[in-house]
Amino acid sequence: MDDFNFDTLAIRAGQVRSNFQEHSEAIYPTSSFIFKSAEEAAARFSGEEEAHFYTRVSNPTVSCFQDRLAALEGGEMGLATSTGMSAILAVMLGTLKAGDHVLSSRSIFGTSTILFTNILAKFGIEFDFVDLSDLDAWKASIKLNTKLLFAETPSNPITELVDIKALAEIAHASDALLVIDNCFCTPALQKPLALGADIVVHSATKYIDGQGRCMGGAIVGKKSVIGEGIFAVLRSGGVTMSPFNAWVFTKGLETLNLRMKAHCDNALALATWLQSQDVVEKLYYPGLTDHPQHDLAKQQQKGFGGIVSFVVKGGKDAAWNIVNNLTMLSITANLGDTKTTITHPATTTHGRLSQEQRDDANISDGLLRLSVGLEDINDIQNDLARGFK
Ligand SMILES: *Cc1c(COP(=O)(O)O)cnc(C)c1O
Asked: Which secondary-structure segment (H or E) carries 309?
């Protein structure tokens, strides 16, 4: 379907109909597939014949999701994983060995930092962290054993950006891979592979599902990059996606573009309103003209996204007080939902980081993160106004 445009691919790519000719995508909740003979079983296990034989390795519903997401990201191949974290884990395990060095942005999802410094470091993989937008710092921190650069753009929670094209050039000058966590933008707003990234990872749990139902993750890239080492981690490490979840995500992709547009519209309206609120000390949203990387966001993204963060006067007590006086917004760590959610990062998503790590990532005690949903903007605004009062 190479000639088709985004909205068409989102609805039709990846579907392979069964003999029943079902119109909507089928779900195949089966752990294994049967063979006509011992010979066929042997040929399929050895890879001599390509077919589904065991759902840990591949499954038609999961393939549909993988192929559809790969089409939307403009990648050759997609792999689906049980969660966003296991996608990141599989990329690291599949491309690195003891003695390799990874250069990562400081402002990444809190659990990603924990995975790198507390778990993968135990196996002899070295990590260094740099300021996301500081290209000179990335360049200066590359070492002879640097094999992979990892970044999230825009970052969670303070919506900082990096120039993906420039970062890809830095990575490739040292034969390192560039991995971009595209969770906040999704391919509807940003296509890192087209800008030079080698691998895109996703938490499908967020906007790809879009309604807060399922956990899942994904990896997209060239077949030569993800088809062997990383696929081997899924096959033997077993962090595969369930067929039911893959089906939910496949249907989620069908409305992704529409939903992302609506998230962006609501987020911009809310950020604009927040600018006029006395209690707001600092506001982070790439769609505002005073965001330090507003121009880069316009150039690199199709929209500014649905995440708005802000620091309130009065630190943690004031932030908690606001959260506790809301009646509609959901107090929950998930994001990318049709329901607007509010989080106090310093004591939740980034609570396991040290104070120093939080300071480095600009997670102050008064910071609140909103994942702006699709409710009526006036109701979202009124609820926050209640909290501010
Ligand atoms: C949530 C999230 C993850 C982890 O995904 P899970 O599905 O929760 O494992 C990774 N990166 C970013 C940017 C996220 O927001």
From this structure: strand 307-312
Within the chain, which residue ranges are assigned CATH 3.90.1150.10?
A: 257-388
The sheet carrying 101-105 orders its strands as: 77-81, 217-221, 199-203, 177-181, 146-152, 101-105, 126-130
Looking at the chain, the domain(s) classified CATH 3.40.640.10 span 6-254
Q: Is the CB of 217 under 6 A from ligand 1?
A: yes
Tell how far the Cα of 182 is from the centroid of ligand 1, in angstroms.
10
Summarised one tens digit per residue, pLDDT across range 165-220 is 999 999 999 999 999 999 999 999 999 999 999 999 999 999 999 999 999 999 99
What's this model's pTM, rounded to 2 decimal places? Answer: 0.95
Tokens 């009646």 belong to residue: 327
* Domain 257-388 classification at class level: alpha beta
Task: Please give the Cα distance from 181 to 192 (Å, whole number).
Answer: 9
CATH architecture of 6-254: 3-Layer(aba) Sandwich (3.40)
Residue nearest to ligand 1 atom 6, measured at CA: 84
